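ugh ok fine here u go
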Amino acid sequence: MGKTIVIDPITRLEGHGKINIFLNDEGNVAKAVFQVPELRGFEQFCKGRLAEEVARITTRICGV
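structure:
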């Protein structure tokens, strides 16, 4: 594999985030990995709710 491009930290994201872009020998993207280690857990209390309700709940908890 050729070159690796690392974008760390990612801005416009609450918490930590990183992107690794792996280029092949020709310079084309062979693989890209997006990493966010934090677990927010919103999915668990949003199960079974209407989509409109989820949007109201999560924006009150997290501004992102």
